[in-house]
Specification:
It is built from 8 helices and 19 strands. The protein is of the alpha+beta class and 333 residues long. The chain folds into 3 domains: 1-97, no CATH class; 122-254, Jelly Rolls, CATH 2.60.120; 256-328, 3-Layer(bab) Sandwich (Phage tail protein beta-alpha-beta fold). Strands 1, 2, 3, 4, 5, 6, 7, 8, 9, 10, 11, 12, 13 and 14 form a 14-stranded mixed sheet that branches. A 3-stranded mixed sheet has the order 16-19-18. A two-stranded antiparallel ribbon has the order 15-17. Helix 1 crosses helix 2 and helix 2 (22-34) packs across helix 3. The longest helix is centred in the N-terminal third of the chain and has 17 residues, at 36-52.
């Protein structure tokens, strides 16, 4: 019993951080299943881990958990939880650009070890970088969501993604798959940008380095992309367009710039909404047709940015409660 407990303690953190070998994980599962007291302790630690794990600090994940674990008294589970929650609440206050939700499904009766789902959700007006368990990096733009499970890097490298992200993927034997609402992006090791907000008409993928292939959920064949190629998928028509582009422009948002190329003011203001956490309502059909090209600094204040867009003094911006109404200055509509 003492030997099993010792092995349990040694392998516990490795299981949650997905660093165990296949043999070690199988041994851990057998030990948990064999002893009701270890099953109970595993269940409690699963709850503690769900509260404590902060994916935006991926490199410090193990250290954070071990620090908390070392401070937990061994006498009673109640004391463990009370002290743990106090420490965890302090840790959570340190993170302001992302939130993490873990959904843990346990079924000891059917002898299943739980699957842990990590979700990183970026608030409007924020950006954050996530370091994945395989060492890959993802810079997430405002309003984005990224999910992966605790088998990531071992049995799969599957990501579910909404929003805009700049991906720097480490090359591994297991290909990485980014699933958006309607497109799947298969990657072996590369650098690319994805813009796939649910409210946008298009999904936009630009490749900077390496190779990726893109497939739809329909019957179309996968499309292979080369560096400095861009794919635009229209969610309404289901049409895919591939064309040459300076892919570096797609990642300018990571440096505080918004690159636009023949974009309508409606599309531009949608990006401004996410960055500045405001809402726009365009009441002029003429204004909706206006297009812009160039680079806009998002380090400006909102007022400065709107003045920059309205350099010809054609628009009228009216603040109304939590929204900004946009009208044509000449017609007033």
């Amino acid at each position: 019993m003492e030997e099993q407990k010792s092995i349990f303690d040694r392998l516990l953190m490795g299981y949650f951080s997905s660093t165990l070998s296949k043999e070690e994980e199988e041994l851990f599962v057998r030990i948990v299943k064999s002893d009701p007291s270890l099953q109970k302790e595993f269940d409690e630690y699963s709850k503690l881990y769900a509260v404590s794990h902060i994916p935006t600090l991926e490199k410090e994940k193990a250290a954070n958990y071990l620090l908390i674990k070392s401070q937990l008294p061994r006498k009673t589970i109640r004391k463990k939880i009370a002290l743990f929650l106090k420490v965890a609440s302090v840790l959570l206050l340190l993170v302001t650009t992302a939130t993490t939700i873990y959904y843990i499904n346990k079924d000891i009766a059917t002898q299943k070890i739980p699957e842990t789902i990590t979700e990183v959700s970026v608030p409007l007006g924020s950006q954050t970088q996530v370091v994945l368990p395989d060492g890959s990096k993802v810079m997430l733009n405002s309003g984005s969501i990224l999910r992966y499970n605790n088998k990531f890097g071992k049995e799969n490298r599957n990501l579910f993604f909404k929003g805009e992200g700049f991906f720097e993927i480490v090359k591994k034997e297991i290909p990485l798959l980014v699933a958006t609402e309607e497109l799947d992006i298969k990657v072996h090791g590369t650098v690319f940008n994805v813009k796939a907000y649910p409210e946008d008409e298009n999904i936009d993928v630009s490749l900077l380095e390496g190779k990726i292939s893109i497939g739809t959920r329909g019957n179309q064949e996968d499309i292979a992309l080369e560096p400095n190629e861009r794919v635009v998928y229209n969610k309404k028509t289901k049409n895919i367009t591939v064309f040459k582009a300076d892919a570096q422009n797609s990642s300018l948002w990571t440096t505080g710039k918004l690159f636009v190329e023949s974009n309508t003011i409606q599309e531009i203001l949608r990006s401004v909404e996410r960055k500045y956490n405001v809402k726009f309502r365009i009441e002029s059909e003429q204004v909706k047709k206006e297009t812009f090209s160039g680079t806009i600094s998002t380090t400006m204040s909102l007022t400065e940015l709107l003045d920059y867009l309205d350099v010809d003094k054609k628009y009228k911006f009216i603040r109304e409660n939590d929204s900004i109404i946009v009208r044509d200055r000449k017609t007033g509509h």
